[in-house]
Amino acid sequence: MDRRNFLRTVAITGAAMTIQHSEAMEILTQSVSKLGGGKVDLVAVMGGEPEAMFRRAITEMGGMKKFVKPGQKVVVKPNIGWDKVPELAGNTNPKLVGEIVKQCFAAGAKEVTVFDHTCDDWQKCYKNSGIEAAAKAAGAKVMPAHLESYYRTAPLPAGKIMKQAKIHEAILNCDVWINVPVLKNHGGANLTMSMKNHMGIVWDRGFFHQNDLQQCIADMCTLQKKAVLNVVDAYRVMKTNGPRGRSTSDVVLAKGLFMSQDIVAVDTAAAKFFNQIREMPLETVGHLANGQALKIGTMDLDKLNIKRIKM
Questions:
Q1: Claim: this prediction has a pTM higher than 0.85
Q2: What is the pLDDT of residues 36-84, one digit of tens each?
Q3: Are 252 and 237 in contact (CB under 8 A)?
Q4: Is-contact 109 166, C-beta < 8 A?
Q5: E strands within the chain?
Q6: N or C of the chain: less Cβ packing under 10 Å?
Q7: CA 20: distance to chain centroid?
Q8: What residues contact residue 145 under an 8 Å CB cut-off, 6+ apart?
Q9: Distance separating alpha carbons of residues 89 and 87, to the nearest angstrom
Q10: CB–CB of 43/270 below 8 Å?
């Protein structure tokens, strides 16, 4: 079956707000590729718990030791922007964050730091999201990001609008970082995924909203220090009223996860998945095409070796 149809129509039940398995979902069990048994470029997993889906995906990508080396300082950057409990899907799933931290240490990381520049009060966001507790339980340091003194100016010479930005020192000082956004609706950008998650490493988010949000998101992703891995949490998906959400009626239990080093590709796959929950044409998520134009990744999934797994 054609790769572009690997996340075709999915039935949604209204009351349960849970993605139901359909015949089309069986495509996720396939691993057909034009590139044969070579390097996997993108993994899509469906139907498991956050920790199990991550473990399966990282194994398919070659294991965490491929991305984190012994003695390295690692940053795990989730979305912790909102003072919301996990069930409301405003932030990255804490179980996923905890598992990634554990895997980093198992690969030999010297230290792991977790942070986000939150929109709501940072202490409430960290606590009520469940991420602070999960990160600390796994051995990570949790760092605040609410003061400008935490940020240093870094150049973005390839950016069309943004030519520089103040970046959180945790990113600038680490050896490698892992980008772990949650997939959800966003009133301005239409979707939040890996590319938009970069707004949480920047001090002046207002600049984005005042100067072509879709282009600035793409510009920010030209930062020289790119994430070694992008992991899109689609376990619970906020389909409406994003990015904050209002109630569980905004949330679909989708039980998905997408992983790739190609930030445009992983976001394209996640956006196609979201489109099965709620119509959201790719052209309305302008930072995807803008990112491809800046050559930070590809939207053409047919060119990639994609592993699809149904748990």
A1: yes
A2: 467 899 999 999 999 999 999 999 999 999 999 999 999 999 999 999 9
A3: yes
A4: no
A5: 42-46, 73-78, 111-114, 141-142, 151-155, 164-168, 176-180, 182-186, 190-192, 229-238, 251-260, 306-310
A6: N
A7: 23
A8: 115, 116, 117, 118, 122, 168, 170, 200
A9: 6
A10: no
